[in-house]
Amino acid sequence: MHSNIRHAHVFSDAFLIGFIMVALMTVVLPDVALAQQGARSVVAGVGVPKGAVSVSDSAITSGMGRLIAAGASEFKLPARIGGDGSAEVHTWSGSAYKPGCAPFLQTLLQSALTEAGYVVTRVDSSSENTPNAFDEEAYGTGWLNLGSADPRHQYFHATNAKKGETVVGVWFDQESRNRLVLVLGKAGFAAAPTETTVPEIRDPNVWVVNDLKNAAKGMPPATLPTFPKLAAKPKMVRSMIKDASGKPIAGRN
Length: 253
Fold this sequence. Notes:
The protein is α+β, with helices and mostly antiparallel strands. Helix content is 28%, strand content 17%.
């Protein structure tokens, strides 16, 4: 009798532990699934982590378009924002935002871009010039309410040589406001320079210019021709002119 009670008690404890584990998984897994299932970005043509709400206010999207164009200029990319000059703006807030989630969502987007054939370059805001997003008049960023409590925003650009497209983006992780913002816009595509082989030049009188800004760079010093001493003649100035090879030029002496 006591043995049956003890077994029932052990079974009850195991069932309770199992129920708690299932309950915890039910609470945790939806957030992971929320970040893994994404909508599509029209600008980049890739998935954006789910949970984002797209901003449709033209005053905001056009201002963010100017910010992206300024970023493209700073990063030495041709500035070209398609259509009306607007950018895409996506925000994660409320239950879609958790403190510390920004790196995870950024990695998801970077992976999606890489899989789509983009080469992603993150911009080090501490060492490179970036647009001043705090300039509300220039970029209409007043709606972000950027403050000193927000960490520095993170820019990046991604180029797809096969598609001939370049995308510029910036993340605003506003933990103080429980919000993450992603701005995406297209920049003009600039193909990477290709290396060419300079043909071998055998003519000693031909010089190959390797630096267009300094054609004489690397050129050996010119050899000056020698001139014989000319006999002085009264009331006459005498001279001798030779070409680069040292031969006298007819009619110039």
